[in-house]
Structure formats: structure tokens, C-alpha cells
Write a structure and sequence with these properties.
This protein is α+β, with helices and mostly antiparallel strands. Helices cover about 30% and strands about 25% of the residues. Strands 9, 11, 13, 15, 16, 18, 19, 20 and 21 form a 9-stranded antiparallel beta sheet that branches. Strands 1-2-6-3-7-23 form a 6-stranded mixed beta sheet, covered by helices on one side. Strands 4-5-25-24 form a 4-stranded antiparallel beta sheet.
Length: about 475
């Protein structure tokens, strides 16, 4: 079928996804989407509560003759990662994603789409709005600021939710049910540096075209990380051109594999920097040509910066970029091929007096998560800096005999004739917070196929979304 935005608006779920997508809703900027959610409930006469953080809980009474069924809780988060293509001057705090149909996929023009987790929110809106679906009592939980520490889920008062069965709609692979996840936390790095006036040739180095991706979903795909490659570039220049760095901008979120970096540098006069970059680009293509075929490295002349980092500061920056833990560090001995412990340096900002960085550290084993945090702290301490370990989600432990999961699997087999896969996710999930605070809570996480989340290449499969929404109506009726 050939889709248009107009034809998608005729679908009960996509109509709401398009509505949600018209509201800027980056993490920390969720007041408008929270108000829209509360207004949605008010207009329909549905009972709702909106807390001081912006979380919204909407309840819908059961269908006739289903009043005595056990309630089912649905959960998704209202916020999204905001990231734009390198070179695109788009302020996503005021400009929402501009939706584009691309065959069987829905994407945004030059930015993240926000299907993570807007499609889950849209499914819940559609179910609440639908008058035909048979269902038990519904408790729909919309949280805020999931992408920046799950602050909404942490702050939500769960004592009145009234359900011990929860379907989380924040998974990204159709036909896979998630029944556990790794824990994770953000590490914030600050290293003081000193700047001086410098002479020489001034250049702006651009590294872009990397695939990027979600640091939980895509961390094991061998993709290049922009901070690591830029560290190699700076090291090469430092050794051969007496380079000093004036500025570095890399990445947009700790939990996204950085897909671009920009550095302003001053090199010895007359040094052939374009030639050096061309050689490095060839090396990088040989190493990452399969995973990151769009990788591009280039330079242009700029005016001489007023100041650059001194020798010590430049060396500290390079040491951090080259030695920080990056990628999969340990794999599970219980589930073949599953990443168990990983680290992702997602953001680096360098100014005249500081090096600032953010990393996302994940592990299904709490002691290994602690170990990686200690590795960070040890490295940064040796560079004269500090690391702040921010609160993160705990691990969601796999429960072998989940009744809810058994019902979901049976419903999938009945509807599609095949058995879904059951996975443990390396990405963090709000389920871990709910399970920790609601003893006896039975959880399953599911969703349609979304690719390249947390990047401007994010895209949502339209047919998959429709199938999963139809399944959601089916399994809720079955429950």
C-alpha cells in the first residue's frame, strides 16, 4: 500500500502519532505534551491525575461485563531524544519533527522522529479513544524525562496505580517480547583546563556521516563512535603538527552513539592538514566501511581563535578520548551473544576552561556496572577531573514463570501463527523502576519495528506499527 500523511491520519493510531509529533517534546521540555495528554483525558471524561513532574495517569473503566477482570496497566514515556543532522540549524525545543513518508517507513526531515516512544503513546491514546475494543479496566501511565535519567518514572507515586500487570510499549522490534533489561547510569565528566593565545594555521575539522544509534540497542553492532575517531585524529595531529585544540563539539546525548564531531584546532604553520585527514579517512573507511559507509572527514580554514587549550589541556583531552571505555566490554555467559556490560561516551564539549563529557554505562550485573564507573573515575582523576555518577535505572531481572508473558506469547501465536522471541534488553527500561517499587508486578515490554533510534536516521515501520497495535487490542481483549 502506498501511504501518505493524509491516509495515515485516517488510522485511529497514526492520527494520534501525527498529533503528538506536532508538539516539541524533548526531555526536559515536556510541559506541552503533558498538558495535551491531560486535556485528552478531560475532553473524554476519563479520570486522570497529573503530578508536579508532568507524569499523567489516565484510567478507563472496563468494557460492559468485564468490570471484575484484573486491571491491565499500559506504560510509555512522553519525551524524546532531540538530535538533528550535522549542519542542520534546527532548534527542536520549538520545532517539532517534520514527518516524511519514505515507502513503508515514517521518518523526520533531518531530525530524530520520536517514535521512541511516541508510537507507544499514540497506541495508548487510540485505545483510550476507542469505543469498540473489549478490555478490562485500563490504567495508562505516561511518564516524562525517560531519556535523561527516567526522572518521571522515579518520581511517580505508584501506590494508587491498582494493577500488577503491565505492558510497557517502549520496545523496538516487532515479534520480540522483552522480559528483563540491564541497569544503567549516566556519568558526567568535568576536567579543568587552561587556555593560552597561540600562533599557527587555524582549521575546523568536521567528522560526520557515522551511523550512530542507541547505546543499548546498537552498541554491539561495531559502529564507529565519533569521540574515539576524533581522538585518533587529534592524536595524529598532535604528534606531527604541534596541534592544540580550541573547541570540540561531539554528540548530543549520553545514551546515543555519537555520529558527528567538530573540532577547531591550531597547527604548525604550513602543515598539510587536508592531506593528513584524507589519509585518516581512508584508514577509517577500511575499518568501518561496512558499519559506517557514510563516514566523512574534512577541514576548512577558519580565523585564528583567541585562545586554545595549552599543551597539558590538549593532552588531557586526547587521553580521555583514546582511553575512555567504549562499546561492549563483557558479553553474557547465560544468553549467547547478548551484551552484558557496555559504556558509551555520547557527549563531549570543550571550552577555554573545561572539558565536559557525558557517558552512559550499562550492565545486567550490578558489580560490573560499578566496575566501569570506577574505571571512569580512575581515568578522570588521573587527568585532574571529577566524575558525577547520576542516578540510573536498576536492572529488571528475568522472571522464569511470568503468567502475563505466557498469555502474551499465546495471543501472538493465535494472531500470527508463530511464536515470538523472548529477549533480555541491554537498553534500560522504566520497567525496572516499576518492578522495584511494586512487589509482584508482572511486566512485558513490546513494540513495533523502529530503526536508528536516538539519531536523525530514526525511522518507524508503518505496517509493523499497525500489526502491533492490532495485536495490542487483541491481547487486551484476551486478558
Amino acid at each position: 500500500m502506498e501511504y501518505t500523511l493524509e491516509s495515515l491520519r485516517e488510522h485511529e493510531m497514526f492520527r494520534w502519532f501525527i498529533e503528538i509529533s506536532s508538539v516539541p517534546r524533548g526531555s526536559g521540555n515536556t510541559k506541552a505534551i503533558s498538558e495535551l495528554t491531560a486535556d485528552f483525558a478531560s475532553v473524554r471524561g476519563l479520570q486522570y491525575e497529573r503530578d508536579a513532574l508532568g507524569n499523567v495517569v489516565i484510567t478507563k473503566p472496563a468494557s460492559p461485563r468485564k468490570e471484575n477482570c484484573e486491571p491491565i496497566m499500559l506504560q510509555a514515556h512522553l519525551d524524546m531524544v532531540c538530535a538533528a543532522q550535522s549542519g542542520k540549524n534546527i532548534d527542536m525545543s520549538v520545532t517539532p519533527p517534520q514527518l516524511v513518508i519514505d515507502g513503508d517507513w515514517l521518518r523526520a526531515d533531518g531530525t530524530t522522529l520520536g517514535a521512541d516512544n511516541g508510537i507507544g503513546v499514540a497506541m495508548m491514546f487510540a485505545l483510550l479513544d476507542n469505543t469498540d475494543t473489549v478490555h478490562p479496566p485500563l490504567v495508562c501511565v505516561f511518564t516524562v524525562d525517560e531519556e535523561t535519567g527516567m526522572e518521571g518514572a522515579y518520581g511517580l507515586d505508584k501506590s494508587r496505580l491498582g494493577s500488577r500487570r503491565m505492558l510497557n510499549l517502549d520496545a523496538e522490534r516487532e515479534g520480540e517480547f522483552f522480559a528483563g533489561c540491564a541497569g544503567g547510569n549516566k556519568a558526567v565528566v568535568r576536567i579543568p583546563v587552561t587556555s593560552l593565545e597561540q600562533d599557527g594555521d587555524s582549521w575546523r575539522i568536521e567528522l560526520d556521516g557515522l551511523a550512530g544509534g542507541h547505546s543499548g540497542v546498537d552498541i554491539d553492532r561495531g559502529r564507529a563512535a565519533a569521540p574515539v575517531l576524533m581522538g585518533r585524529v587529534l592524536m595524529e595531529l598532535r604528534c606531527s603538527a604541534e596541534m592544540r585544540c580550541a573547541r570540540l563539539e561531539c554528540g548530543q546525548a549520553d545514551n546515543a552513539i555519537a555520529d558527528h564531531a567538530t573540532a577547531d584546532v591550531v597547527c604548525a604553520a604550513g602543515f598539510d592538514l587536508p592531506g593528513t585527514l584524507a589519509s585518516l579517512e581512508s584508514t577509517f573507511h577500511a575499518e568501518y566501511g561496512i558499519t559506517d559507509p557514510g563516514l566523512h572527514l574534512r577541514a576548512e580554514r577558519i580565523d585564528l581563535p583567541k585562545e586554545t587549550l595549552d599543551d597539558a589541556g590538549t593532552d588531557k583531552l586526547i587521553c580521555l578520548l583514546l582511553n575512555v571505555p567504549q562499546g561492549v566490554i563483557e558479553r553474557s555467559s547465560h544468553i549467547a551473544g547478548m551484551p552484558q556490560t557496555s559504556s558509551n561516551l555520547g557527549v563531549v564539549r570543550v571550552g577555554p576552561d573545561s572539558i565536559y563529557a557525558e557517558a552512559c554505562i550499562r550492565s545486567a550485573v550490578a558489580t560490573q556496572q560499578d566496575w566501569i564507573n570506577l574505571r571512569f573515575a580512575s581515568l578522570v582523576k588521573s587527568l585532574g577531573g571529577t566524575v558525577e555518577r547520576c542516578r540510573g535505572a536498576g536492572a529488571w531481572e528475568f522472571v522464569p514463570g511470568s503468567p502475563l508473558r505466557a498469555e502474551c506469547i499465546m495471543a501472538w501465536k493465535e494472531l500470527f501463527g508463530v511464536e515470538p522471541a523472548v529477549r533480555i534488553s541491554h537498553a534500560g527500561a522504566e520497567c525496572g523502576i516499576f518492578v522495584a517499587e511494586m512487589p509482584g508486578l508482572d511486566c512485558v515490554s513490546l513494540g513495533p519495528t523502529i530503526e536508528n533510534v536516538h539519531t536523525p536516521n530514526e525511522r518507524l515501520n508503518i505496517e509493523s506499527s499497525i500489526r502491533v497495535y492490532n495485536y495490542l487490542k487483541y491481547v487486551i481483549a484476551r486478558l
